[in-house]
Amino acid sequence: MMSIIFYLVCNLIFHRSFCESSSCKWPHAFLDGRKSLNRTILEWTTLETLFPFMRNGHYKPNCRPIQRIAIIVPYRERETQLKIFFLNVVPLLYRQQLEFDIYVVEQVGGRLFNKGALINTGFLQSKIDHSYDCYVIHDVDILPEDDRNYYTCGENPRHLAVLVQQFGYRLHYPEYVGGILALTSTQMENMNGFSNLYNGWGFEDDDFYRRIKNAGYKLERTPDKLSYCGSLDHKAAIKNKDGCEIFMRYGRMWRFDGLESLQYTTLKREKRQLFKWILVDFDANLLKENLKVSVKNIDKSTLPPRYKGYKDSYCAWYLNQKLFSTINMIKKFHFTDKPNNTNMTLRTYNTSNLEVPRTATKECLTTIL
Q1: Which residues, other chains included, contact 337 with Cβ-Cβ below 8 Å and sequence gap of 6+?
Q2: Which tens digit of pLDDT belongs to each residue from 189-220?
Q3: Close Cβ partners of 305 (under 8 Å, ≥ 6 residues apart)
Q4: Could you give the C-alpha distances from 202 to 4, 194, 198, in angstroms and in order?
Q5: Is 313 strand, coil or helix?
C-alpha cells in the first residue's frame, strides 16, 4: 500500500520514468530460493573480478532500496572462511537489491578472541560513516542458503540463522541468537550493545539474548522454511573458561557493560574493494576491572531487574557439558565395596539410561562448578 502511495505522489512531482526506476521492487522477483553453499575457495583478485559493482566495501542498486544495511563481521585468522563468506553473501545481497556496506572488524593477535567487543567496535565505527537503517551481526562461518531470508530490520531484533547445518538444521536451543542477527541502531543502543567481558568462545550470544529481553524486545525469527544456513569448518576456538561465572555474576550490569564502557584502539582502517577492514586492539581484562570499579558503590536497588526467562537454568548448556563429563567419570568407577567401619548402605550408579535435562538448576551449579 505504501509503495502505491509513493508511486502516485512521485508521479505528481516527477516524470513517470523517474518514479518507476526510483523504488526497488520489494520483495524482489528474481530470487533463487534455497540452494547449497558455494564452498569454492577463490583468491581475492578473483573475487574482486566477480563483483565489480563493489566499491570500498559498498554497493548501491540503481533503484531506491528499502533499507541501507551494515554487515558487521567479527573476525580473526579465518581467511578461508572469509573468502567463502563473500562468495555467498555478496550475490545474495545483490539479488535482494539492498544497499549495503560490509565491515570486517579484526582483532589483533596476542589476546583471546572477544566477539562482543569486536561487534561493538564495528557498530561504533560504522556509525561514523553513515546512519544505517539496519545492522546485521554476521559470523563468518554461518551462511544463508536461501536468498529469501531478507537482511532487513523491523520493530524487534530478528534472528536469521535459525536452522543451521552444524546443529542438524534445527534451532540449537530456545535462547540461541548466534550466527546472523539483524537489529536497528536504536535497538542496539537500548541494549548497550554486546558485553565486552567474554574472552574466548562462548556465552556472548546468550548474554545478548538476555539483553534483548531486559530491554523489553521480543525476539523475532525468520520462518523455518527460509532460515536454512550452511556451516563452514574451522579450527576450534579457545573456549571462555570464565564465561559461566561472568554470565551469572554480571547479568544486571548490562547497562554499564557494552557500548558505553568500550575502550579500544584502532590500529588500521582500510577501504578495500569488497569490504572495509578495521584492525583493533582492546584489553578485555582491563574493561572488566574498570566495570568492577564503576559499579562498586552503586545502589543495587537501582539496577534493572534480572531477566526471569531463564528461571534457574542459567548456563544450561555449559552445565549439561559438565554433567556429561561427570557422568563419563562416574562410569569409570565401580563401587563394589562398603566403606570400612561403617553401616553405610552400598551405593550403586546406573548411568546406562541416564538423560541430562535441557536445563540445569542452581543446585547443579553449586554441585558441579
Answers
A1: none
A2: 999 999 988 887 778 888 899 899 989 999 99
A3: 252
A4: 47, 13, 7
A5: coil
Grid look-up 543502543 returns: 189
pTM: 0.78
Residue 112 to residue 48: CA distance in whole angstroms: 31
**Who contacts 339 (Cβ-Cβ below 8 Å, separation ≥6)?**
none
| Predicted pLDDT of residue 58 | 98
pLDDT, residue 127, reads 95
- Looking at residue 249, the DSSP 8-state letter turns out to be H
Task: Read off the pLDDT of residues 93-119 as tens digits, 9 standing for 90 and up.
Answer: 999 999 999 999 999 987 888 999 999
| Cell numbers found for residue 93 | 545481497
Cα 183 from Cα 126, distance rounded (Å)? 14
C-alpha cell, 39: 564452498
Model confidence at 9, in pLDDT bands (50, 70, 90)? Answer: low
Burial profile 129-165: b = 16 or more Cβ within 10 angstroms, e = fewer: eeebbbbbbbbbbbbbbbbbbbbbbeebbbbbbbbbb
